[in-house]
Sequence to fold (115 residues):
Amino acid sequence: VQLVESGGGLVQPGGSLRLSCEASGFTFSRYFMSWYRQSPGKERELVAFITRGGGITNYSDSVKGRFIISRDGAANMVYLQMNSLKPEDTAVYYCSAQSSEYNYWGQGTQVTVSS
Fold:
């Protein structure tokens, strides 16, 4: 099982980034997919999740209206489009796959929002 995130980097406040997560080694369509983030000294927090079919999404209040989660079942990919980025969005972002039995994690990608 692998979840490989990419797309992180340094961006100025107000800018945008698109994170990608490539999944392999499990049946992608059977898993809820989520993005979490963790800043130094803070607990890991849920940013957004999307249901198996992609019909339902949910976001933390801190990113609602700015971030969009999506998934591509044909490519086994999940994305996080991040707009209007703020310094407080700086964190390591993790992709996660969840079912009733298993929970998989990627290695994370660093996002830094700074001028």
